[in-house]
Amino acid sequence: MSKATTYKSDALVAVHETASEMFEAGVMDKQTMRHFDESCLTPIHPFSPEEIKALREREEVSKRIFVHDLNTDKRNRNR
Q1: DSSP 41
Q2: Minimal CA–CA distance to 55: which of 69, 71, 40, 75?
Q3: 7 forms bridges with which residues in the sheet?
Q4: Which residues of 62-79 are buried (b: 16+ CB within 10 A; e: fewer)?
Q5: d(CA 23, CA 31)
Q6: pLDDT tens, 41-77?
């Protein structure tokens, strides 16, 4: 499963891709690249444990299938 990148607008796709290529070429530093990420990419919504559980139950999938589809491990918890 690959992580989809979503952009704030079509124009920002080209801007971000150019910035990414400059970063990969070593012409741009990591801090500047982070700025382009924040400016161009759609923010990621942080889900609470309760929201995650509600999503899994709404989609009627087991915990095992859910963590597999997310390409994660139920033991891999940050909280």
Answers
A1: B
A2: 69
A3: 41
A4: eeeebbeeeeeeeeeeee
A5: 10
A6: 998 888 899 999 999 999 999 988 888 888 776 665 5
The full set of domain ranges for the chain reads 10-40, 45-79
Instruction: State how far the alpha carbon of 3 is from the alpha carbons of 6, 25, 34, 54, in Å.
Output: 10, 23, 18, 22
Please give the pLDDT value at position 77: 55
Percent of the chain residues past pLDDT 70, beyond the cut: 87
Copy the structure tokens of residue 23: 């970063």
The candidate with the shortest Cα–Cα distance to 36, out of 16, 51, 22, 59, is 16
How is residue 60 written in tokens?
Answer: 């009627």
Whether pLDDT at 37 is above 80? yes
Whole-model pTM above 0.70? Answer: no
